[in-house]
Structure formats: C-alpha cells, structure tokens
Amino acid sequence: MRITHIETFPVRIPLKPERRMISALGQHTVSDYVLVRIGTDAGVDGVGEATVMPRWSGETVWGAKAVIDHVLAPLVVGCDPHEVAEIDRRMDKACAHNWFAKSAVEMACWDIQGRAAGKPVYELLGGAARPLAITCRFSMGAYEPERAQRRARELVAEGFETIKVKVGGEPERDIERVRIVREAIGPERPIVIDANCGWDADTAIRCVNALEDCRIALVEQPTPDGDYAAIARVRREVRPPVMADDMCFNLIHARELIRNEGCDVISLYPGKNGGIRKSLEIAEFAAAHGVACSIGSNLEWDVGTAAMGHLVVACPNMQIEKYPGDMLGPEYHEVRIARNPLEIKGPVVTLTNRPGLGIDVDWDAVKAHRCPGI
Predict the structure, then answer these.
(1) What residue ranges do the domains of the chain occupy?
(2) Which of 25-39 are b and which e, b meaning 16 or more Cβ less than 10 Å from the residue's Cβ?
(3) In this predicted structure, what is the pLDDT of residue 192?
(4) CA-angle at 362, arms to 357 and 366, nearest 5°
(5) Taking residues 25-36, what's their average pLDDT?
(6) Where are the beta strands (DSSP E) in the chain?
C-alpha cells in the first residue's frame, strides 16, 4: 500500500458562547484548524486533524496548510502508511517543530492502517489497557467571580468531579477565583489549577501555598516554557503534585523535565507531540522513570479527540484514573465535523471499536465551514 495524495481543508468553527476559553494565553472564541485527508493506491483513505493555535505552538491555519501541502506531502507521497517511524523521520528532517501539522499527517496514517485491517487504532498500539469510556475533568476559563461561581455549580450538576481552573494572571484575582470555585463545588471534589506558563516561580509558589486550605490536587504548568529550573523549584516548594504541559512537546523536553526532577506528571496528546507514536514514546520513557502521564487538550474536534482517546486506551501510563485529563473539545464547538461523532455525556467520552480512528468526516460540513480566504 502506498500514499498517493494528501489534501488539506482549513476549517473555522466558533465555540459555544458558554464554553469560550479564557486563560493566561488569552481568549479562544473560534477554532481555525486544518483537516487532512490521505489517499492510497488501495482505495483506503485516512483523516487527520491539526488543531493549530498561534499562542500555543506558533502554528497557524495558513502555515499548517502550506507546510503540509508544499513541504511534508511531497516527502510522504509514495510511502507505505504502515511505516509511521519512517514518515516521522522524513517530516522531522524536512522541517523543525510544526507539531500539529505533522500530527495530522501521522494520525491519518494510523487511520488508514486501522481501516485496512478492520481494527481500531488502539488495537494496533497493543490493545486496550483500560475501558473505552474515559472520564474527564472540565477545564474552566479564568472567569470573573460571578461567572466562575455559576459555571462551577453548573459543572457539578452536569456530573463533573474534577474541575480545572485557569490561573496565571493577576495573582490575587487568581486566588479569589480558585477559592470561589472551591466553595461552589464543595470540599470533596478535586480541584486543579493551570497557569499556562503565566506565572514565574516566585508567584507560583506564593499562590499555591496561599491556597493550601483549598487542597489543590494538581498544579499544571505553573512556570514559563523552557525554564526547567523554575518548574523544579516550584515542585520542591509546594505540596501538590506538579504537571508539565506547555513545555513538553517532544522526547527531549520530557528527558530534561525528568532529569531536572521538574514534574510528577506530564500532559501528552498527539497534536502537541507530533503524533500518536511520539506521544506513546514519551509515555513509555516517563513510565520507566516513575513519572505519570495524562491527556491534555487543545480543544480538538472529533478526529483529534479520537486520536487522543486511542492513545489513552492503549497506553497503561496514561494515568487518567489518578490524573483525569481533557478530551471534551468537540462539545465546546457549535458544529461537529463528524457524521458519527464521539459520544460525550457530561464528563465521559466513549470511543467505539470501529476501524481506524472510528470517525467519518462530514465533508459537506467541512466545505460549509471552510476558513474564508484560504
């Protein structure tokens, strides 16, 4: 089997007003992403998704389409989609970074493999290590006090147990928001805070220690990207476990985090890590060094979320039972791009055992929501 062509589709879908995200990175009100369709000489197609966000990885919908069309596709056409490591090698040699663009190509190759074999991707990764129903936390924006209180109560009513609160802005307002959410959800439910690199080490330590009575379950990405000494210092000087996210894109980053004893948990997902294979490689390396992993999110649509789900189901070290992750992206958006969307009920996302990623794209919906001018 050989790849014959790669098509890219830039798509724009707004978020539901009640689920628009506010964080240290800014506001996210609309998603401009790229869907990828790969064809083969066996007549089997696969789909991938690049959930690009300039503030996150530096990638844009314009750049992702261009790098796939003009840099990656010419090197990948003619390859066997089963040879994922070779495809990754070619893409990495052609250009640095561009994690989400590369991931879209890679996940489409896994989709092709599964469809051709009549197996879900998690079976190709070694089989299910946990049930197909995945319980998630809810990532709540850095809202003003009244909205934060109301939203927290709504989430409890919807069945969420673990609530993540965005911080990383003005410290006193962050502390106030976390206290309001803790009061709203009660004393028993786990509460996580996520600074998205918005604090320095001193601020993170002061804020986390000031919230000791709120019993924070996890501190996510408290310090800036690339500063391994800062996150290691926070880990030493606060009580809750520390998760690295925004600063762990590849295996080298994971090695540095672990070498510097910078985290208890690493947040992984295929888009950020350049593909399912690379996420799995990091998870296995972390496991060998006693570091847990969980699933993160960039508010994916159904294709990207399915890729995340197959990784979670197949990989024992994706310890979502202890550290629930984020996989609710499709529900944040006003439109679903799948004819057979993932089942999402409250905090639970359920994969199917359909072949490949298990998602059939609604190409009419894609055409109706193409990014203007691209």
Answers:
(1) 3-118+361-368, 123-350
(2) beebeebbbbbbbbb
(3) 98
(4) 110
(5) 90
(6) 3-14, 21-23, 26-28, 30-40, 46-50, 133-135, 138-140, 163-166, 191-194, 216-220, 242-244, 265-268, 292-295, 343-345, 348-350
* Alpha carbon distance 162, 323 (integer Å): 9
Closest CA to 140 of 328, 359, 365, 311: 328
Under DSSP, is residue 341 helix (H, G, I), strand (E, B) or coil?
Answer: coil
Q: Which helix (H) or strand (E) holds 279?
A: helix 276-288
Structural domain 123-350, CATH architecture: Alpha-Beta Barrel (3.20)
Rounded CA separation 69/71 (Å): 6
CA 295 to chain centre: 6
Residue 168: the pLDDT is: 96
Q: What is the pLDDT of residue 207?
A: 98
Class of domain 3-118+361-368: alpha beta
CB 136 within 8 A of CB 348: yes
Q: Read off the pLDDT of residues 290-302 as tens digits, 9 standing for 90 and up.
A: 999 999 999 999 9
Contact 358, 120 (CB under 8 A): yes
Residue 371, both tokens: 């990014």
- Tell me how far apart the alpha carbons of residues 327 and 317 are, in angstroms, rounded to a whole number: 17
Classify 204 in phi/psi space as left (phi over 0), alpha (psi -120 to 50) or beta.
Answer: alpha
Q: Is 50 within 8 Å of 59 (Cβ atoms)?
A: yes
Q: Calculate mean pLDDT across residues 265-276.
A: 98
The length of the chain in residues reads 374
Query: For 349, phi and psi rounded to 5 degrees?
Result: -110, 130
Contact 207, 167 (CB under 8 A): yes
pLDDT attached to residue 24: 66
pTM of the model: 0.97
Tokens of 284: 């296995």
Query: 11 forms bridges with which residues in the sheet?
Result: 33, 370
Per-residue pLDDT tens over the stretch 78-135: 999 999 999 999 999 999 999 999 999 999 999 999 999 999 999 999 999 999 999 9
Q: Which residue has the tokens 């794209």?
A: 361
Q: Report pLDDT for 19.
A: 79
